[in-house]
Design goal:
heterodimer; A: mainly beta; seven-stranded mixed sheet; four-stranded antiparallel sheet; 11 strands; B: mainly beta; six-stranded mixed sheet; 54% strand
Chain lengths: 112, 112
Amino acid sequence: DSGVTQTPKHLITATGQRVTLRCSPRSGDLSVYWYQQSLDQGLQFLIQYYNGEERAKGNILERFSAQQFPDLHSELNLSSLELGDSALYFCASSVGHQLEVFFGQGTRLTVV
Amino acid sequence: AQSVTQLDSQVPVFEEAPVELRCNYSSSVSVYLFWYVQYPNQGLQLLLKYLSGSTLVKGINGFEAEFNKSQTSFHLRKPSVHISDTAEYFCAVKLNDYKLSFGAGTTVTVRA
């Protein structure tokens, strides 16, 4: 158990819908990262937050947004969902910027 | 910019045989290097990391990796694999507070 908690574990939704994925980082970790894992794209970095502020942005679509709250948990919002958004979404956390990153178990999103 | 190349997408190996997974990175500055393992239907687990110091790093489950700066490589090795080592392995690089960039992954299948 990495200490990073993601909910829900599985999510099935229809095209055009909006979903929210939730992540609780390890106790004391200030950085939260979101990754998307799909068969064709592999592991893609989406976005990073550090202590509530957006730190780095990767290949995140405009239909996707994220935030980190004062209690350091984070949410990834995916809207106007398309079939191609079906993937495993990972949250990860780290104490600071340079140290190892711990991953949650992921949320498997299926868009039908 | 930094990128990670895992030279083998699939590595079949017999139980108790050695295995080497190759990873090359491209970066003009110093990086931090990691190997993660993903067991079926699970999240990513850190195997080992190179931050500085000795170029030979030992990780969990009998794995080790060697950092070679001149060849910009960070190959992962295990002298004797078990059936339970069947998984996908990801090499990753991190530059200071930048995102963790992953290779495409290497699927290791251990056969009896």
